[in-house]
Amino acid sequence: MKDLILKADNLYFSYEGDKNHSLNGLSLEIERGKKIAFMGPNGSGKSTFFLCCNGILKPVSGSLCLDGEPYDYSRKGLLKLRQRVGIVFQDPDSQLFSASVYQEISFGILNLGVSEEEAAREVEEVIGRLEITPFRHKPTHALSGGQKKLVSIADILVMHPDIIILDEPAAALDPRHSEMVNKIVDKLTEKGITVMIATHDVDYAMGWADQVFLFKEGRVLAFGTPEEVFADRETLRETNLRQPAVLELFETLCRKGILSSQLKTPRRLEDLERYIRES
Amino acid sequence: MISIDRLCYNSNLRYVNAGEKFAFAVLSLCACVLSRSIPVSCFVLVIMGILSVWKGGIPFSCYMRYMGVPLVFLLLSSLAIIINFSGEPLDLFAFSVGGIYITGSRESLFYALNLILTALASVSCLYFLSFHTPMPDILSVLRRLRCPKLILELMLLIYRFIFVLFEVAHAIRVSQNSRLGNRNYRTSMKSFGAMASALLIRAMKKSDALYNAMEARCYNGDIRVLDENFPPRGKEIILIVVFEIILYGLVVIEML
Prior knowledge:
The complex is a heterodimer.
Chain A: E1 4-13, E2 23-31, E3 35-39, H1 46-53, E4 61-66, E5 69-70, H2 75-84, E6 85-88, H3 101-111, H4 116-129, H5 145-157, E7 163-167, H6 175-190, E8 194-198, H7 202-208, E9 211-216, E10 219-224, H8 226-231, H9 233-238, H10 245-255, H11 269-278
Parallel strand pairs in A: 3-8, 3-9, 6-7, 7-8
Antiparallel strand pairs in A: 1-2, 1-4, 4-5, 9-10
Chain B: H1 2-10, H2 18-35, H3 38-55, H4 60-82, E1 84-86, E2 93-97, E3 100-104, H5 106-132, H6 135-144, H7 149-178, H8 185-215, H9 234-255
Antiparallel strand pairs in B: 1-3, 2-3
């Protein structure tokens, strides 16, 4: 029996004045504590689905369940839902509303109705944990892209969600900051938080994810472990993705007889390197 | 405005309790406006200047430049007070032009000087506040003074989005320049219009996205945030109190 945290069943959604459905009979199941990558071309419904998960958008038909209970769209229900499912938006500039880092991070937790002392403690804790201290006194408009991203992640973490959704977290980040974001994500999964990431980086998804969902035109085209999903070239082509480098290289090496195809499919380049060294 | 913002985030007095700075600036401002006397204004002007430059670390040239802006404006507008057109010459100076005199009196010169100094001293008080206190800190003082919530929330969002939209406008402008969008008057007028309309649309979209992002964090129509407080220091409070007592003493003497 799978331990499901989120379940979407046959979701339909279209934006006002748009004849096309942004979500077109989308169904999927997310297991608790897993690392999930969402991939697919722009406009394939990833962001729309995320907004549905958080209750910002309400699907026209179909149902969403959190922990087996259908979404409750009452005021109180939404409040509870949004505490448990947090979204880090793609563009930090449309998420950060305050010029002060401290104020910004305190917003979410104060909305949960905790006391100011407790909120202050939580904010301090998250500032320390994400290493925001060196720039905590800078105004948000003077922060670099990577620093803004860290603050926008802290915004959500301070609310202690069970599911955290990151919409293209590495977009417009330099390698050092995307490395930092990846480390934070790893720490989250260690704590048992379910992490859902939208990304275009197949190599990252291959190395990181437990499960990959490929979206196309508002529904799931394929899903499974990265090994399964990325082995299927036909589906990848349909979603404008290429194979991860490590997989391509591995297949070539197998074809040439350098490595045995009986080996477990490598996820990262380091794994492949080890195979070659040991062969 | 952007450069004032940069100054205040780098000021040495930034981490002084905002309430102290606010009280100091506002009380001194009231003293200037109440007394309208030259000695009081000069006193305030000098003290504010010394504090901003010496204690706050604002470069002197920079401070003078900022003081220069209202000064030019004040000098120009006080010309209207000093210069009179009259049938007979007044005591300070007089040129006859045709049948009438362009003339001025000692009294009006004195009055203009008084006005300029009062206004300049008041501006220096406000500068003191804005050079050393970031906007969020000023807002937290206003919140404690029970300023209406709606106004405070508007100020918070407007302040943040000035910078966001400024960045967008800058990016649009650069991209227009790179495509020769400003090569002559006609194209630059056209480009400016295009930028303004693009900016409006962008602002609408950003506000939508912001609203979504805030809702995603359980926003319920009421922006509640924690203020970062820098504790007030006894020594500073005593100094401020002493200064204000001297200042108001001076005001009373001047008004008697």
